[in-house]
Amino acid sequence: QKEVEQNSGPLSVPEGAIASLNCTYSDRGSQSFFWYRQYSGKSPELIMFIYSNGDKEDGRFTAQLNKASQYVSLLIRDSQPSDSATYLCAVSGSARQLTFGSGTQLTVLP
Amino acid sequence: DTAVSQTPKYLVTQMGNDKSIKCEQNLGHDTMYWYKQDSKKFLKIMFSYNNKELIINETVPNRFSPKSPDKAHLNLHINSLELGDSAVYFCASSRRGGVDTQYFGPGTRLTVL
Fold first, then answer.
1. 3-state class of A17 per DSSP?
2. What is the mean pLDDT of chain B?
3. CB-CB contact of B95 with B30 (8 Å)
4. Is B101 an interface residue toward A (CB < 8 Å)?
5. Is the pLDDT assigned to residue A8 strictly greater than 80?
């Protein structure tokens, strides 16, 4: 079982729609959860982090965490073509080491 | 000013050669990392240094040797390069260990011919 799992996609949504990206993790001792965005040929850049159960909103982005279900998600509202990228879920587990999922490729269609 | 910088950006070399990649961060962070991203985009940690001390050393061939002369620099030396070493190598840093946000350098695309 992979430690951090994401649907690899590709996920396509029309411009203006909500994009929903999902991630599950296996380490119940995980404390910190991160979403990174990576454009093709570029380095990962942080979008959001979340530590507590519930929702955290930042502009068009909402991170949702459910520790009981070991599930973290990222919602992108009013998706734009510029949001087209690979989204990486990263989890800091009980070993205090960041483990990345394999990423979900998102395409927002104009 | 670039927060995390790496040199070179591209590296093309022949099998069997030895090469180095350099990384510097000006964020004042204590922890630095090397990651390898393969062609399927999977990002895997290789090494982690905290204040010049090796913290994480994943299952990486001993042809790879990190070196941290000070907490702002973490270099990666690779001996006897193999075809399978071709990948993008990212340096990253964080204020503390894995619980903090990591900031990535621009990456070094290594191609072994």
1. coil
2. 91
3. yes
4. yes
5. no
CA separation for the pair B112, A34 (Å, rounded): 32
Beta strands in chain B (DSSP E): 4-7, 10-13, 19-25, 31-37, 43-50, 53-57, 64-70, 73-78, 87-94, 103-104, 108-112
Question: Mean of the pLDDT values across residues A9-16?
Answer: 93
What's the one-letter identity of residue B65? S
Inter-chain CB proximity B98 and A45 less than 8 Å? no
Q: What is the pLDDT of residues A33-53, one digit of tens each?
A: 999 999 999 999 999 999 988
Q: How far apart are CA A20 and CA B99, in angstroms?
A: 25
A34 contacts B101? CB cut-off 8 A = yes
B55-90 confidence digits (pLDDT tens): 777 778 899 999 999 989 999 999 999 999 999 999
Number of other residues whose CB lies within 10 A of the CB of residue A31: 14
CB contact under 8 A, A88 and B43: yes
On chain B, the residues whose CB falls within 8 A of the CB of A98 are: 45, 98, 102
B6 touches chain A (CB under 8 A): no
